[in-house]
Design goal:
Chain lengths: 515, 718
């Protein structure tokens, strides 16, 4: 038992890889076994993160459960893991969503083994980013998560659809989407890697806790540039990499494509966790490493955040494709995360910053929950109707009453209805950002209004109105397995909406120590 | 203390009922309505205990030591954001009418949705029941989604109770929005109808415009004061003073002014004030108990309750009897809305739509009352209006029900809600008639007897007494129209002779529907007697002005006294009686198939009123269509697809062109060319060398020997 508690983080991080290895050894025709094993294998990290949650002491400053082993000794990079309240929340989110995504994937019949192995590796990649306390290690996992996701979209993505690039060149939609996703992230990673190298050389270490304490005081020059310029360059490299990943307007167009073409479980993880990597990067690296630059350029970030909120909502409203509508809503919701981060960066401490950051982190968690639920529900209806065009649905409520109720519930959580999770975080962000960026916050309210518009549009087109008679007798209501997937998410939505203290307590202390 | 904890429990029974119905008992109709009515009854009982304990505690006692408690909810930075419950005199009286109306409406719904009737022949979930055939007779059929209705109405009740007992703006907002959701779900209860679907979305979105402003106001207030607790802000003189003096850097308003206006915009949405009034009439698409719930007992009242609740903030910085900017805005919007909506009501044919516009108009009175500083009068009218308007809505539902009965009987296809199809229902539906008459007279402000008279008179007196003559005149004109359209409605519906066969065969409704009418009628008269001003001629002082003593204790300071004046009283009498007489005289005996008599007098103005000043059409053109274009065409098709993706694709294309160039001009001719040349030369050389590769060993030996000798020779020579 001691062994488990002492190495909790390592276990959580690598158990998915072990599961992947085991799965790889099983002959591919045992599909049932592979599915259940993958599910079991993803439940263990979840159980361990619950243990982690209970053992974590929120009131203790700094990183806990640290593990540090030599890795690249020559360049002072080590295998260093650790968590604070912010990363713990993200770890919990990841380990909750992965088993649910795998359960969702039980209807995958094509190359099941490869699919599940990739999924497990994806989980490891994501967890690695949240757990790493070493820049190089962070980068390794950052890149690692990309590969499985690329293949998941490319191989198991939607089969229909094409995209015309320019005259005469048309590619399959999923090829297009996976490529765009890959290239976008790579484009950001390039600068990120260079900036990390710069930091490593200038400071002599990649260790984050060390960097947090010494980086501010690092003097000298680098390729003839003074330290101030080096930091500004590195700051922008980080910001661009993370902004592409979040994504922030106008770098967002990969998202609707990737989300729409990915298989349902892929979209759940993509929206649920992968988008959080970008925002997490801002909080974990940009804020502590570049407080001056972050404060100086926070206005730009806030502008982009509000643009994301408003334009994301408008875009979502403009869709006729159900999945694309939900995809665009992520841009709208992640805008609030960035707005909160920008406000915290501008003031760099004090009650407003803490509130804004609390809101941002909670919004990350909440969006993870509700976006996963929404993508899942889109998948459920798509699996039955084989269309995503909302104009072909129409008045389905009487045919799928339970599904309809769940859809309304989840949509309301996404809309930010008080009493459900989204409201708490949005309120905190608005409250934190108002004294800092009053005008931006006020403009953001337009986006909040249009959130309602697009959510109601989707409900209107899917559930309400006269029944499209062609579906009569052809649709079955949501089944038991599907309810098992969505029920935990609904419980979380309600729980956080009514009693957010259990999770916010953990975030709140960590957010306070950020400054 | 026990009462403190009891207050927490008030909202819970309906919430539990909602969850149990939605999750478990949705197939069992009788169990579902029992749960819902039972929950309403429990909350009612608790509310009555709280109310009478409050009364016993007295104005002074309760004002200083209100019931309630708080608990930590959100950890924020070093401290906690606390939520809690609060029962001060204002809460107590609001709780009183909320509990009664909710209970009555829930009970009424049992009969309204045809409990005990057979299932319909062709009824479908999401469409109103269309009747069943029993032994060759058409009879009403039970609502297909019967249980769901009771689930939703319970959630609605939960929202309202939460809002009322909240001690802070945040949980008030939670209840506020939950009601918004319920109104969405219930207005669109018959979601299969296109009109209902449009109305549900309209209601949610129009009120949401107000809500996002309100959210900003809440965020502003929270950042300016560090708390959202009512007592914490309103009973703290320094905080109010600071808010009133601190500039907000926006239009020269003080912080208090801007916060007040932002919060008030929330009320404009929720209480359907001009220019966000358009959702309310369409909300009549919902079942009638919903109309009563939304437009009388709960949701729209919540908007007014909120501005009454934050009155100390709204009036912060005002001189004695003077006005602040938010109050001025409220006085203007409120009185304008009161008159504006009353004019539209005059030209409506649908029995429920008249009431809808009348609701907008009456809410305008309350808002204007808060604007002129008439704190007690606004509260008073809020309560009396809730009673008589709930009565009127339920009464109209009863009328429609009776008419539908007639329609089933005759098999005609006519609109059972059109008043011009009615007439003479007085004898067919006596209970409905008498109670509706009481409600109508209360709405018109029929002197001395009805509750509406006392509360409306008090608003007049305050507007006049504080010297807001414009407000006073506007409201008086609106009151004249109110009395007129009310009597028009009563005459068209109940008086004269039946104008259709269906009206001849109309039928009184079951006891579950008439009992609530009778109970509400008692309050529509009796509640007014609790607020008769002391200075009123003859009657004043006989019954103590309990309300006038009790409610102001919710405020941190005393209100200014108003001198008695005959002008508002006489005005009030003249407009009420004048309007009623006029309405009766014109509509007392409209014959079958007749036009509205006032149409030819008003001409084009009538058409304008009938079409509600074309606000829906205008909003559609100015806001809805452009927004849709902006979303679908501009941001998506142009910005994302053409500009951003186009840019990306052109980058990709450039990269591809560069790649092709490199391949065709450099890779292929030079690099590949070099490689190919190497290959070609090697091949050529091989070809030449191949000749010596004959395969004969002797020849190889010979070559080896020659080479060996040659080498040997070379070394020797050296």
């Amino acid at each position: 038992m001691e062994l488990v508690t002492n190495n909790l983080l390592t276990l959580i991080l690598f158990l998915p890889a072990v599961t992947a290895l085991v799965l790889a050894l099983i002959p591919g025709k045992n599909e049932k076994l592979i599915r259940w094993l993958a599910l079991a294998g993803s439940l263990v990290p979840f159980a361990l993160s619950v243990v982690l949650w209970t053992q974590f002491n929120a009131a203790e400053p700094g990183f806990q459960f640290q593990v540090k082993l030599d890795w690249y000794e020559a360049i002072n990079s080590s295998y260093h893991l650790g968590i604070d309240g912010i990363s713990l929340t993200m770890v919990l989110l990841t380990t909750i969503l992965t088993p649910l995504a795998i359960l969702t994937s039980f209807n995958i019949t094509d190359k099941v083994k490869a699919y599940m192995v990739l999924f497990m590796l994806l989980e490891m990649g994501m967890l690695g980013v949240f757990l790493s306390l070493d820049l190089l290690l962070f980068f390794v996992f950052w890149e690692f998560g990309l590969v499985p996701m690329y293949f998941l979209i490319n191989q198991w993505g939607s089969e229909k659809g094409e995209r015309t690039l320019w005259k005469g060149v048309t590619v399959k939609a999923r090829t297009y989407a996976s490529m765009k996703f890959m290239l976008y992230t790579m484009a950001g990673s390039l600068g990120l890697l260079l900036a990390i190298q710069m930091i490593g050389v200038a400071a002599g270490t990649f260790d984050l806790p060390q960097l947090f304490s010494i980086w501010k005081g690092v003097e000298g020059s680098f390729f003839g540039l003074d330290m101030e310029s080096v930091k500004t360059i590195a700051f922008w490299a980080f910001v661009i990499a993370f902004a592409l990943k979040v994504p922030v307007w106008p770098f967002h167009t990969w998202l609707p494509d990737a989300h729409t073409e990915a298989p349902t479980a892929g979209s759940m993880i993509l929206a649920g966790v992968l988008l959080k990597l970008g925002a997490y990067g801002f909080i974990r690296l940009v804020l502590p490493l570049y407080p001056e630059q972050a404060s100086q350029y926070a206005g730009v970030l806030a502008f982009l955040a509000v643009a994301s909120i408003v334009i994301g909502a408008l875009n979502s409203f403009g869709q006729e494709d159900f999945k694309r509508l939900v995809a665009y809503s992520s841009i709208n919701h992640m805008g609030f995360v960035i707005l909160g981060i920008a406000a915290a960066a501008r003031v760099g401490g004090g009650p407003d910053a803490t509130l804004a950051l609390n809101g941002a982190v909670l919004q990350m968690f909440n969006h993870g929950i509700s976006a996963a639920a929404m993508f899942f529900l889109v998948g459920v209806i798509y699996g039955r109707t084989h269309t995503r065009d909302m104009n072909q649905y129409g008045g389905l409520f009487p045919l799928v009453p339970v599904y309809g109720g769940i859809l309304i519930f989840s949509s309301m959580a996404a809309l930010g209805l008080p009493g459900l999770n989204g409201f708490v975080s949005e309120f905190l962000v608005v409250r934190g950002a108002w004294p800092v960026f009053s005008v931006y916050t006020a403009v953001g309210m337009i986006g909040l209004f249009f959130t309602g518009v697009y959510v109601l549009k989707s409900l209107k087109k899917v559930l309400h109105g006269p029944l499209n008679e062609s579906w009569q007798g052809k649709l079955t209501d949501i089944n038991f397995r599907e309810i098992v997937v969505v029920a935990p998410l609904m419980v979380l939505m309600l729980w956080i909406g009514i009693w957010p203290a259990w999770i916010l307590k953990v975030i709140n202390w960590a957010a306070g120590w950020m400054f | 203390m026990a009462i403190d904890n009891l207050v927490w429990l008030l909202p819970l029974p309906p919430l539990l009922a909602f969850f149990v119905i939605v999750l478990f008992t949705y197939r069992r109709k009788a169990l579902s309505h029992s749960l819902s009515v039972g929950a309403a009854l429990l909350s009612w009982l608790g509310s009555m205990v709280v109310f009478f304990s409050s009364v016993r505690a007295g104005a002074e006692g309760l004002g200083e030591h209100p019931f309630g408690s708080t608990l930590n909810w959100l950890p924020v930075g070093e401290g906690w954001f606390q939520i809690g419950v609060l029962v001060d005199p204002l809460t107590a009286v609001v709780l009183f009418f909320v509990a009664w109306t909710i209970l009555m409406i829930t009970l009424y719904s049992v009969g309204y949705h045809n409990f005990g009737q057979p299932e319909g022949d062709h009824d479908r979930p999401g469409l109103p029941p269309e009747g069943a055939t029993v032994d060759g007779h058409r009879v009403p059929s039970i609502e297909p989604l019967y249980s769901r209705f009771f689930g939703f109405i319970s959630l609605f009740a939960f929202g309202m109770y939460t809002l009322v007992v909240s001690d802070n703006l945040l949980t008030l907002f939670v209840g506020w929005e939950i009601m918004g959701l319920c109104s969405y779900l219930l207005i669109g209860f018959w979601y299969g109808k296109l009109s209902a679907r449009a109305a549900m979305i309209k209601a949610f979105l129009v009120t949401r415009i107000g809500d996002v402003f309100m959210l900003l106001g809440i965020a502003y207030l929270y950042s300016a004061t560090g708390t959202l607790s009512f007592r914490g802000i309103f009973f703290n003189h320094e905080v109010l003073q600071q808010l009133a003096t601190q500039p907000s850097n926006f239009l020269g308003l003080s912080s208090a002014g801007l916060i007040g206006i932002l919060l008030f915009i929330g009320t404009v949405g929720k209480s359907a004030q001009f220019p966000l009034h358009v959702w309310l009439p369409d909300a009549m698409e919902g079942p009638t108990p919903v109309s009563a719930m939304i437009h009388a007992a709960t949701m729209v009242s919540a908007g007014v309750y909120m501005v009454i609740r934050i009155f100390p903030l709204l009036s912060a910085g005002a001189a004695e009897g003077g006005m602040t900017s938010p109050m001025l805005v409220m006085a203007i919007i409120g009185s304008f809305t009161a008159l504006f909506a009353a004019t539209i009501a005059v030209a409506q044919r649908d029995v429920k739509r008249v009431l809808a516009y009348s609701t907008i108009s009456q809410l305008g009175y309350m808002v204007a009352a808060v604007g002129v500083g008439a704190y007690v009068a606004a509260t008073f009218h809020l309560i009396t209006h809730a009673f008589f308007k709930a009565l009127l809505f339920l009464g109209s539902g009863s009328v429609i029900h009776g008419m539908e009965h007639g329609v089933y009987h005759t098999g005609d296809h006519l609109d059972p809600q059109d008043m011009f199809n009615m007439g003479g229902l007085r004898s067919k539906m006596p209970v409905t008639f008498w109670t509706f008459l009481i409600g109508g007279l209360a709405l018109s402000g029929f002197p001395l007897v009805t509750a509406g008279f006392w509360s409306k008179d008090e608003i007049f007196a305050d507007a006049f007494g504080h010297g807001h003559l414009a407000v006073f005149i506007t409201l008086a004109l609106a009151a004249l129209l109110t009395a007129f359209y009310t009597m028009r409605q009563i005459s068209l519906t109940f008086l004269g002779k039946p104008r259709t066969k269906a009206a001849e065969h109309a039928h009184e409704t079951p006891w579950t529907m008439t009992t609530p009418l009778v109970v509400l009628a008692v309050f529509a008269i009796g509640f007014g007697w609790l607020g008769i001003p002391e200075h009123f001629p003859v009657l004043g002082g006989i019954i103590p002005n309990w309300l006038g003593e009790f409610v102001p204790a919710s405020l941190p300071h005393r209100l200014a006294e108003i001198e008695f004046s005959w002008t508002p009283l006489v005005t009030s009498l003249v407009v009420a009686l004048g309007g009623l007489t006029l309405g009766w005289w014109i509509y007392r005996d409209v014959p079958e198939g007749a036009e509205d008599p006032i149409r030819k007098w008003l001409g084009p103005v009538y058409t304008l009123l009938e079409n509600k000043y074309y606000f829906d059409e205008m909003y559609d053109r100015v806001f809805v269509k452009p927004a849709t274009w902006l979303a679908e065409t501009f941001t998506y098709k142009w910005m994302d697809r053409v500009v951003i993706d186009g840019f990306l694709h052109s980058v990709a294309r450039t990269a591809q062109l560069v790649g092709t160039f490199l391949r065709d001009k450099i890779d292929l001719p030079i690099i590949n060319g070099f490689g190919d040349a190497v290959g070609a030369i090697t091949a050529k050389a091989g070809e030449k060398v191949r000749r010596i590769q004959t395969g004969r060993v002797q020849q190889y030996m010979l070559i080896a020997l020659v080479v060996a000798i040659g080498t040997l020779f070379y070394f020797i020579v050296q």
